[in-house]
């Protein structure tokens, strides 16, 4: 605390990012990064940008990248907003589209940045409890609100909500923005982007950090009705007109253009997810059904905190949340075959 802090800063409870440890020979399974790395074409595209052009500002609208993403998803560039990672996109959504006067709704167990944004922008919120099986119940989102947001698949549970139930929430809130945060959608779910032409209140956010292995470039985007996109652009241009640099724009475009690499990586993660799930269940774990690049598991006898500490002592980092309802769970990123084998061996020894 400092006498120079504003009252707002003094009251903020910031987001705590996943640990980025510097341990040697580490098996890092705590921040849901893609184990397979970016397409070689991404590296080539970035290297091609390392020239005198770096003295120039990047395209503030990211027109070429928006055109590429639009073609991929069969939408128009006017339906796309780009940001410096989906976290920045979400921050602009909270600031520009959620209504004051009624609480916005999000699950009680979910991405922990949501309440941080509410505190930053003085937005009232209400946490909607997940079911006993850690699922989103659409009926619980049919109540007065200033907006709705939820990840799909949810984080940290990994559970996926079928599109028919997403539509229920959209139809029940025609005068409020409903945001579907799809950071993990490419690992087995069906994107709600297919619904944006049907529902003008729908905004879908995605990231290139997970399935396209670009967490280090910080590229995210939102898809929705042009009126919603215009609102986000107004907010962006009141903060930073150039959110994506030239290297990020080039790398992201190349990542979208290499479909074969993208599919190979996603299929590899999905295959390993199913294998690791089966093995852990055989070791006495309850593993929630996941459509993400991670699993959420608890042991029938061993406390989650003890397991996380034991793994760490042997050079394996997973995510443990000391929070109500989920303190016995571990969130485990799906790694390479070798990383997953190391995890399994350590768990067997514990």
Explain what you see.
With 350 residues, the chain is of the alpha/beta class. Strand 12 and strand 13 (329-333) form a beta hairpin. It has two domains: 7-37 and 260-349, Aspartate Aminotransferase, domain 1, CATH 3.90.1150.10; 40-257, Type I PLP-dependent aspartate aminotransferase-like (Major domain) (Aspartate Aminotransferase, domain 2, 3-Layer(aba) Sandwich). The relative contact order is 0.17. The protein contains eleven helices and 13 strands. Keywords: Amino-acid biosynthesis, Aminotransferase, Histidine biosynthesis, Pyridoxal phosphate, Transferase. It catalyses: L-histidinol phosphate + 2-oxoglutarate = 3-(imidazol-4-yl)-2-oxopropyl phosphate + L-glutamate.
How are the secondary structure elements laid out?
Elements: H1 7-11, E1 27-28, H2 40-48, H3 63-73, E2 80-83, H4 85-97, E3 104-107, H5 113-121, E4 125-128, E5 148-151, H6 163-172, E6 178-181, E7 202-207, E8 220-224, H7 226-236, H8 246-257, H9 259-282, E9 285-287, E10 294-299, H10 304-313, E11 316-317, E12 319-320, E13 329-333, H11 337-349
Organism: Marinobacter adhaerens (strain DSM 23420 / HP15)
Keywords: Amino-acid biosynthesis, Aminotransferase, Histidine biosynthesis, Pyridoxal phosphate, Transferase
Catalytic activity: L-histidinol phosphate + 2-oxoglutarate = 3-(imidazol-4-yl)-2-oxopropyl phosphate + L-glutamate
């Amino acid at each position: 605390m400092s006498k120079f802090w504003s009252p707002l800063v003094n009251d903020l409870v910031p987001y705590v990012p996943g640990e980025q440890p510097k341990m040697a020979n580490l098996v890092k399974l705590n921040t849901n990064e893609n184990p397979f790395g970016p397409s070689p074409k991404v590296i080539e595209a970035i290297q091609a940008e390392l020239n005198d052009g770096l003295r120039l500002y990047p395209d503030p609208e990211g027109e070429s990248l928006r055109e590429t993403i639009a073609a991929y998803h069969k939408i128009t560039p006017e339906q796309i907003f780009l940001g410096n990672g989906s976290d920045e996109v979400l921050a602009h959504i909270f600031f520009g589209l959620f209504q004051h006067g009624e609480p916005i709704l999000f699950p009680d167990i979910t991405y922990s940045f949501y309440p941080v944004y509410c505190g930053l922008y003085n937005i009232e919120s209400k946490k909607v409890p997940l079911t006993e099986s850690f699922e989103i119940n659409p009926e619980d989102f049919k109540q007065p609100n200033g907006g709705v947001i939820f990840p799909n698949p949810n984080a940290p549970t990994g559970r996926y909500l079928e599109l028919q139930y997403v539509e229920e929430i959209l139809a029940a809130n025609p005068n409020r923005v409903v945001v579907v945060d799809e950071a993990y959608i490419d690992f087995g779910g069906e994107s709600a982007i297919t619904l944006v032409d049907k529902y003008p209140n729908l905004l879908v956010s995605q990231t290139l950090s997970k399935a396209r292995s670009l967490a280090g470039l910080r590229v995210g985007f939102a898809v929705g009705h042009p009126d919603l996109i215009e609102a986000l652009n107004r907010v962006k241009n009141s903060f930073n007109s150039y959110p994506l640099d030239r290297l990020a724009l080039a790398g992201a475009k190349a990542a979208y253009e290499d479909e074969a690499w993208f599919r190979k990586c996603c299929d590899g993660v999905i295959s390993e997810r199913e294998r690791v799930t089966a093995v852990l269940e055989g070791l006495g774990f309850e593993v929630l059904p996941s459509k993400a690049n991670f699993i959420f598991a608890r042991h029938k006898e061993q406390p989650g905190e003890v397991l996380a500490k034991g793994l760490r002592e042997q050079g394996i980092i997973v995510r443990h949340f000391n929070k109500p309802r989920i303190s016995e769970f571990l969130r485990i990123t799906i790694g390479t075959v070798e990383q997953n084998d190391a995890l399994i061996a350590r768990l067997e020894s514990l």
